[in-house]
Amino acid sequence: MSRYEVSLAPSVSIPLLGMGTWKLQGKPCEKTVRTALEIGYRHIDTAHFYENHREIREAIRGFPREKLFLTSKFTPSQLENETIAKSCGRALKELGIDYLDLYLIHWPDRELPMKSIAKELEQLQAMGKIRAWGVSNFTIRHLKDMIEWGFSPAANQVEFHPYLHQKELLDYCNQKNVRLIAYRSLGMGALVADPIVEQIAENHGKTVTQVLLRWAVEKQIPVIPKATSKKHLEENFAIFDFKLKKGDVEILDNLTFQHRFCQSPKFDFDYQ
Question: Mean pLDDT for the chain?
Answer without folding.
Answer: 93
